[in-house]
Structure formats: C-alpha cells, structure tokens
Amino acid sequence: xxxxxxxxxxxxxxxxxxxxxxxxxxxxxxxxxxxxxxxxxxxxxxxxxxxxxxxxxxxxxxxxxxxxxxxxxxxxxxxxxxxxxxxxxxxxxxxxxxxxxxxxxxxxxxxxxxxxxxxxxxxxxxxxxxxxxxxxxxxxxxxxxxxxxxxxxxxxxxxxxxxxxxxxxxxxxxxxxxxxxxxxxxxxxxxxxxxxxxxxxxxxxxxxxxxxxxxxxxxxxxxxxxxxxxxxxxxxxxxxxxxxxxxxxxxxxxxxxxxxxxxxxxxxxxxxxxxxxxxxxxxxxxxxxxxxxxxxxxxxxxxxxxxxxxxx
Length: 312
Known about the structure:
By secondary structure, the chain is an alpha/beta fold. It folds into 2 domains: 209 residues, Alpha-Beta Complex (Spore Coat Polysaccharide Biosynthesis Protein SpsA, Chain A), CATH 3.90.550; 85 residues, no CATH class. Helices cover 37% and strands 18% of the residues. The protein is built from 13 helices and 11 strands. The longest helix is centred in the C-terminal third of the chain and has 14 residues. The chain is globular and about 60 Å long.
C-alpha cells in the first residue's frame, strides 16, 4: 500500500453482541471512503455465547479486502467506560479515529464525510453527526435525534449534557493525543471525554445529516436503550449514587484537562469545574452557570442533584 494512503481506525468495544455485530462490521467495511480502515475490536470479557458464536472465528473466516482490516483482541471485563479508554490507549497509528458501538449501522458515506470536514485542520478537531433512532430491524423511529437546542458546543454543557453518542464521532490525531495525555483511570464515558476535550482544546465540526442508524433494543449496554429504565429503577439507581457517589470525579477530570493548552474562552469554565467541590458556594456557582440551565427532566434533575451534593 502506498505510504501516502490515509488511514482510519475504528475503536469498537464488544460485549455479548453476536446478534448485530456482523451487520455493524459490514457497514464499516463497506464505507465509500477509499483509504485504509482498520477496525480494532476489544472483547470486554464476553462469556461463552450460548449460540456457539465466536467473533474471533467469524472474523478469521472473512475476506474484508485489501484496504480493510479487522483486529480482534480478547480482554478482561472492564465495563464500557474503561473498555473504550483501553482502546484509546492501545490504538494504532492512523490519521483519523472513530468510536463504534456493536449494534448500530453506519451510513456508507460516514467516514468520507467526516474526513472531508477534518482534513487540513491544524488543531485538534472532532466531527459529530446527527443520527437516526431505529428499532431492532433498523426501521427509523426518529429521523434526527439531535434537535437545534442540542447544538450548543460549550464546555460545561458538553460535560454534563452531551447529546452526541460516541458512534456519531470521528476525530483527528490531535484529539487522540490530548486524550492520552490525561489520567483517565476514573472518568465519565469516553464520548463525553472526547467531546469535552475537543471543545476545550480544539474544534467541533457538526454535520446535521444523520450518519448513524442507532439501534435501540432490549440489550443495549449503553446509550438511549439503556437509559429507558422505569421510574422505579431510575429512583433506585439515583439512591445508590447518593450512598456511594459516582466512581469518577469531574473535578479531577477538569484538573487533568487544565494541563493541556486550553482555548482562552473555556479556561474559566474548566477552573470552575475543577474547584466546584471545594465549598458550597463554589457548587452553587457551577449550579447557576448558564450552561446548566435546562427544562427540568430526569437527566437535568440528576445532574443538578449530583452537583448540589458533591457527588461528581
């Protein structure tokens, strides 16, 4: 392969997802972009599948073509949060990087449209697109999941109310390098980290055309399907957090982020987040920030309570 051929790497965390994974991989392999695409799959400790399906054996039996490569790595169970961070840590040399879920479907031009917007950027840059919500058979239930109100690319809004799942994102090497510089042993989800890093240190390129068919089903590990729990379950989950607090500290994430060259417009907000848990007054300063103002719903109520009680 000529040395000047651009390379993209797709980071996919897999757990017990045999039902849809072949279709997802096919949608990535069949992208219109002519460059090299390497799919790095980390198996997050999937137990033996009752159907007998073994992803590594299926991959070995496929011919993905000269410009497509699928790599399978078996790992211990870390959970989706740390599994994706492990993928970031172990990712190879590429020009562009993408996150992928195990059960969605990519539009054929997703990679091509992303790279067209990122190409030539001389700073860390992240692409994100709108996305469609579908049922298990990819029947579209909502054409565009991201509304105009969700397109405010501010740092604190991204940290607390990120509406772009990782499957919509692609980013250049500058974003990857900045994420790798952070100590992220305990942090929020990978997509929120990437989005916040892009806003604080670089640029976000938004595409309003849906490039993902985001499949909602009963076994979603993360994402919208996972969030659609009953009110009773939601209350139980939040009560557990009150007792145990979150496993990650947003103040620690902000302290790590402050070590990077920040955009001047976000320095104050990063500092506010880093210091918010130092006193009740500082919590209220964060709670009353304009980017935390939203119509009350389950999500916003959770965020406000966690800030008020210092649970982040």
